[in-house]
Design brief:
Structural class of chain B: mainly beta
Helix content of chain B: under 10%
Helix content of chain A: under 10%
Shape of chain A: globular
Strand content of chain A: over 45%
Number of helices of chain A: 0
Largest interface: A-B, 27 and 31 residues
Radius of gyration of chain A: 14 Å
Radius of gyration of chain B: 14 Å
Strand content of chain B: over 45%
Structural class of chain A: mainly beta
Largest sheet of chain A: 7 strands, mixed
Distance between the termini of chain A: 37 Å
Order of helices and strands of chain A: EEEEEEEEEEE
Distance between the termini of chain B: 37 Å
Shape of chain B: globular
Oligomer: heterodimer
Number of strands of chain A: 11
């Protein structure tokens, strides 16, 4: 099946530093990847849509200068949390869409990255 | 926006019983619906999906029902097992965007 990996699985950093999270589709190509954030006991909230070779599209309320997204290849998207602060501590999850050429395509999720900012 | 401070509803069932998890969706333009299972500290795992031109779909031990009239989705799990304990989310695909909007989730607890 379609496998999506994330690296690192967890990271602890000091306030003010930047952290990069990688999302890879291992056995398929994904023209579109998505980044979500999940706080404890809450649902997943879509942050942005990442399209290979073009700029990411951010959801309302998500700062594009703080959450930098790069989708340089069909199997890799990265999310960089710049100048991280404790309120950015969260579980970040990516997904990749398998495209069968249909209007509705399945998204497969990565295992998530736990970010803790001290 | 985010629902800060809300706790996920919990469904507690006895092992071997059937479970029914409900979800209300909001967008009439949604054309595709998915149920995901999320275990603690892990990403969501695909369970079953259904397109808007169907009202029922069955998988292995799971059935999804879709009622577009009242914008309601349900997941039925037959013979619930301890390994089914997790948080279950419904998600709706917004037509022509590819975006998924997740419901608030339900915690399923299976008692041995």
């Amino acid at each position: 099946g379609a496998v999506v990996s994330q690296h690192p699985s967890w990271v602890i950093c000091k306030s003010g530093t930047s952290v990069k999270i990688e999302c890879r589709s291992l056995d398929f190509q994904a023209t579109t990847m998505f980044w979500y954030r999940q706080f404890p006991k809450q649902s997943l909230m879509l942050m942005a849509t990442s399209n290979e070779g073009s700029k990411a599209t951010y959801e309302q309320g998500v700062e594009k200068d703080k959450f930098l997204i790069n989708h340089a290849s069909l199997t890799l998207s990265t999310l960089t949390v710049t100048s991280a602060h404790p309120e950015d501590s969260s579980f970040y999850i990516c997904s990749a869409r398998v495209s069968y050429g249909l209007a509705t395509d399945t998204q497969y999720f990565g295992p998530g990255t736990r970010l803790t900012v001290l | 926006g985010e629902s800060v401070g809300l706790h996920l509803p919990t469904l507690s069932v006895q092992e071997g019983d059937n479970s029914i998890i409900n979800c209300a969706y909001s967008n009439s333009a949604s054309d595709y619906f998915i149920w995901y299972k999320q275990e603690s500290g892990k990403g969501p795992q695909f369970i079953i999906d259904i397109r808007s031109n169907m009202d029922k779909r069955q998988g292995q031990r799971v059935t999804v029902l879709l009622n577009k009239t009242v914008k309601h989705l349900s997941l039925q799990i037959a013979a619930t097992q301890p390994g089914d304990s997790a948080v279950y989310f419904c998600a709706e695909n917004i037509s022509n965007t590819g975006k998924l909007i997740f419901g608030q989730g339900t915690t399923l607890q299976v008692k041995p």
